Amino acid sequence: MTRRRVAILISGRGSNMVSLIEAASRPDFPAEIALVLSNRPDAAGLEHARAAGIATLAIDHKAFPDRETFDRAMDAALKEHDIAFICLAGFMRVLTDGFVERWSGKMINIHPSLLPLYRGTRTHRRALDDGVLLHGCTVHFVVPELDAGPIIAQAAVPVVPGDTEESLAARVIVQERILYPQALRTICDGTARLDNGRVVFSRDWDANGTLHSPG
Ligand code: GAR
């Protein structure tokens, strides 16, 4: 098995990053985490990655005059580390179309909503304001349009009376940490692949599983 060399891009605490590192530490996982890169030198996740023995790099976006030069610096660093695939994990910079196109089909993201609902920011607040009873998270390929790429995996959670943004975020992040390694595995082992802008799966499917909210 050739393990794909993956870079994780973060901006903050990196709890999804930790779950990807843990999953990839198993010998049968089809990817290795070869680099953790942050646009914020103070991102807490960098320390966790270092402690796990992963190569880390901080490229401070504030040191660059515009998005193009920042993205080119990231691109050069990714090539230097021989990276084949990118996982965005709480990476809070909008990427240029040029960068996204260079990594087309080789870059995925996790987003804290059931896309296509709630693209962008403040997803938990907006879900609460709308009164939806199911919310969740999505792993998708990255395309130039924000949070609009082909969907690889989703997990749903109930929204319960009395929920706050914090309680809902806490429920969703538990599922994010389970979903992201599963989604990365399916892409790297070929169980899920991009075909004409859609994700196609070669696996059995349980068509009877449902989630009711209220349950
Ligand atoms: C996660 O909830 C992730 O889905 C979200 O940021 C958080 C990062 O947490 N990403 C986005 O909102 C991207 N649009 P983490 O640093 O603990 O993984």
Automatic annotation (TrEMBL):
A GO biological-process term: 'de novo' IMP biosynthetic process
Identify the InterPro entries for this entry: Formyl_transf_N, Formyl_transf_N_sf, GART
Top EC class per UniProt?
A: transferase
Q: Where is the active site?
A: 111
Q: In which pathway does it act?
A: Purine metabolism; IMP biosynthesis via de novo pathway; N(2)-formyl-N(1)-(5-phospho-D-ribosyl)glycinamide from N(1)-(5-phospho-D-ribosyl)glycinamide (10-formyl THF route): step 1/1
| A Pfam family the protein falls into | Formyl_trans_N
Q: What is this protein called?
A: Phosphoribosylglycinamide formyltransferase
Highest rank taxon of the organism: Bacteria
Please name the HAMAP family in this protein's record.
Answer: PurN (MF_01930)
Keyword tags: Purine biosynthesis, Transferase
What GO cellular-component annotations does this UniProt entry give? cytosol
Q: Does the keyword Iron-sulfur apply?
A: no
Gene3D superfamilies the UniProt entry points to: Formyl transferase, N-terminal domain
SUPFAM superfamilies listed in its UniProt record: Formyltransferase (SSF53328)
Q: Name one GO molecular function term.
A: phosphoribosylglycinamide formyltransferase activity
Question: Does the entry feature the keyword Transit peptide, yes or no?
Answer: no
Per UniProt, residues of the Formyl transferase N-terminal domain are 5-184
Positions of (6R)-10-formyltetrahydrofolate binding: 67, 109
* Positions that bind N(1)-(5-phospho-beta-D-ribosyl)glycinamide: 14-16
The EC number on file is 2.1.2.2
In the record, the note on similarity to other proteins reads: Belongs to the GART family.
Catalysis: reaction(s)? N(1)-(5-phospho-beta-D-ribosyl)glycinamide + (6R)-10-formyltetrahydrofolate = N(2)-formyl-N(1)-(5-phospho-beta-D-ribosyl)glycinamide + (6S)-5,6,7,8-tetrahydrofolate + H(+)
Function (record text): Catalyzes the transfer of a formyl group from 10-formyltetrahydrofolate to 5-phospho-ribosyl-glycinamide (GAR), producing 5-phospho-ribosyl-N-formylglycinamide (FGAR) and tetrahydrofolate.
Give site residues, Raises pKa of active site His.
147
